[in-house]
Amino acid sequence: MNSESKKFLRDFLSQCGPSGFEEASQNVWAKRTRAYAQAIKRDVHGNAIAVLNPKADYKIMIAGHCDEIGFIISHITTEGFLCVVPVGGIDSGVLPGSQMKVQTEKGLIDGVIGKKPIHLMEECDRNKSVLIKDLWVDIGAKDKEDALKVVALGDAISFAPNYMELRNNIFSSKGCDDKTGAFVVSEVIKILSAKKLRKDVGVYGVSTVQEEVGLRGARTSAYGINPQVGIAVDVGFASDTPGIDKRIVGEVSLGKGPVLHAGPAINRALGKMFIDVAKRKKIPYQFSSLGRPDGTDTGAMQLSREGVATALISVPNRYMHTMVETCSLDDLGSCAQLIAETILEMTPKMDFIPR
Question: What are the structural domain ranges in the chain?
Answer without folding.
Answer: 3-68+174-344, 71-159
